[in-house]
Amino acid sequence: MAFEQTTKEGEKNEEGSADSVADVGALLNLSNLSAEHKKAILEAFEKSRQPKTVVITVEEDEKMKAMEKKMEDLRQKEKEVKETIKKVKEKGEQSKSKINEEIEKLIEKIIKRKKELIALVDSTVSTKLQMMQSLLSVLDKSFQSLQNTYTYVVIRTYSIRTMFEKYGIAQPWIYRCESSR
């Protein structure tokens, strides 16, 4: 098994910070600690202040590199997915706007067709009304003519009846015509 020794330079040694020195100083001032314990605390503190050396095996290094590569692949795939989502959203917005335009065009066509149908119905109704008015006019004239004729017949019949009654002649057909009205 091969080993590779690495040291990270430029890292701050947190154990050697001012707070940790104060904490160690407070520990050493405790009265119930023996000299042995104080010496052990000082040795541990000194060890913690020394630069650390991390030993990584080649296998671990290869595993870490493989993991880093996988992480990079995942980041790349995530980036691709985000781009795809962005494209899908853009296409969705374009499709939405196209659909809205088509709907507006259809609504305009429907309104135009509605107006055409209303105009057609209006012209048909007006034509039929004119025809009916002319027919009504003809019927009215015919009715007036018939009414005038009827009035003449009634007057004529009345005068004939009066004449027959005056001379004592009975005419049953006159009475039948009047009763049938």
TrEMBL record:
Q: Where is this region: Disordered?
A: 1-21
Coiled coil spans: 57-120
Native source organism of the sequence: Reticulomyxa filosa
Protein name as catalogued:
Internalin protein
Q: Which UniProt keywords apply?
A: Coiled coil
Output compositional bias ranges, type Basic and acidic residues.
1-15
